[in-house]
Design goal:
This protein is α/β, with parallel strands linked by helices. It is built from 15 helices and 13 strands. The protein has helices at about 15-20, 30-40, 55-65, 80-90, 100-115, 130-135, 155-160, 180-190, 205-210, 220, 250-260, 270-280, 280-300, 325-335, 360-375; strands at about 45, 95-100, 120-125, 140-145, 165-170, 195-200, 230-235, 245-250, 310, 315-320, 340, 340, 350-355. A hairpin with a 6-residue loop joins β9 (about 310) and β10. The model is unreliable at about 380-385 (pLDDT under 50). The structure holds pyridoxal-5'-phosphate.
């Protein structure tokens, strides 16, 4: 074919087939984009489960204090943050792993523990990043269907095979907002062979803890179960999503392997100082929990007015089963400057996920829905996803 060098055949793939088949992760639509495209200057983003109160004020002050040192590389070992997290969780610093968001730690876990021929066991309709992390490393993900928008741990235990090496469980789950109970998880763990690394992704732990009595604390479940890794993040309750910082608690051997694989300066200096300060900002944590609980109650109570079925949530978002194409509802709401998350990519084309906002933001969503739903009468019976 004209234009091709005789030395490189035109069809020669430049990437492996597992890269070729990847679809990029589609994040929540940014506010600036909606403002530009739809001419709505004051958009409300309820699409990425961010903190509606903003960042921890103590973290912001710490960042300001550190700005003059950004020409220096960060502490590659995250010494101070690890010490603080170790104290908080009553573990040794050798059991703490810090990453550029829990996202990075998820990818590190896959790169470190899934060798060729080994498989990751996941749930369907859960956080898409898990599958992406596995596939981008050329590994295989086996996904087990959910049951009533909850992880089906019985079915997952039955699906464990000789190739299973890594199991990832979001508790609570995103995007469903549901959780698995302490009893369910304990029973499940007794059925997992010791060679398997189990990851409990607790990105929304702080919202669920103490709200649902049978919601387990993964850090407590680690006792007697060496290969259980617990992930938490500063992106949600602490409001530091833009800085990218999360952590894992794991046995020293597991943490040490992850440490060998990570990049030398994976967590920025501003992220480190902000995270340390945020851990002391109990007032911000409590205010965030309060605004979230109140807003979640409002959305759970009000959304059924529009014919939606709301999956019970212990998180800072709700999954609404709308009985209509979620993409269309998403588009309709954009015209009113309200950004929600359509769930087609999660295998739920008639669902949207809505993050809990401030009282004013929640109200704005409900007002916009009144107009949009009025414009587009229900096409099908509500209650399906
Ligand atoms: C279940 C779950 N895990 C992990 C993350 C990623 O968090 P981070 O910002 O720490 O990478 C998210 C973010 O939405 C999430 O929903």
């Amino acid at each position: 074919m004209a234009g091709h060098s005789p030395h490189s055949p035109p069809q020669a793939p430049i990437v492996a087939s597992y890269i070729e088949s990847l679809s990029p992760y589609l994040p929540g639509k940014p506010i600036e984009e909606v403002a530009r495209e739809y001419g709505v200057p004051d958009c409300v983003k309820l699409a990425s489960n961010e903190n509606p109160l903003g960042a921890s004020p103590l973290a912001l002050a710490a960042i300001r204090d550190s700005l003059s040192r950004v020409h220096l590389y960060p502490d590659g070992s995250c010494f101070v943050l690890k010490q603080k997290l170790a104290e908080r969780h009553r573990v040794s610093p050798q059991e703490v792993v810090v990453g550029a968001g829990t996202n990075e730690i998820l990818t590190l876990l896959v790169r470190t523990f899934l060798a060729e021929g080994e498989e990751a066991l996941l749930s369907e309709n859960t956080f898409l990043v898990y599958r992406l992390a596995v596939q981008s490393c050329g590994r295989t993900a086996v996904a087990v269907p959910m049951r009533d928008h909850r992880y089906d741990l019985e079915a997952m235990a039955a699906a464990i095979g000789p190739r299973t090496k890594l199991i990832i469980i979001a508790n609570p789950d995103n995007p469903n907002g549901s959780y698995v109970t302490k009893g369910e998880l304990e029973r499940f763990l007794t059925r997992v062979p010791q060679r398997v690394v189990v990851v409990l992704d607790e990105a929304y732990f702080e919202f669920a803890h103490g709200v649902a009595a049978d919601y387990p604390d993964g850090c407590e479940l680690r006792r007697g179960r060496p290969r259980l890794v617990v992930l938490r993040t500063f992106s949600k309750i602490h409001g530091l999503a833009g800085l990218r910082v999360g952590y894992g608690i794991a046995e020293p051997e597991v943490a040490n392997y992850l440490d060998r694989v990570r990049d030398p300066f994976n967590v920025s200096s501003l992220a480190q100082v902000a995270a340390v300060a945020a851990l002391d900002d109990q007032a911000h944590v409590e205010a965030t929990k309060a605004v979230t609980a109140q807003g979640r109650d409002v959305l759970t109570r009000e959304l059924p007015r529009f014919g939606f079925q709301v999956v019970p949530s212990v998180t800072n978002f709700v999954l609404a089963l709308t009985g209509r194409p979620g993409d269309e509802l998403f588009q309709g709401l954009l015209h009113h400057g309200v950004i929600v998350r359509p769930m087609r990519a999660y295998g739920m084309p008639e669902a949207v996920r809505i993050s809990v906002g401030t009282p004013a933001e929640n109200e704005r969503l409900l007002r916009a829905l009144e107009v949009v739903i009025g414009e587009t009468p229900l096409r099908a019976a509500a209650g399906k996803s």
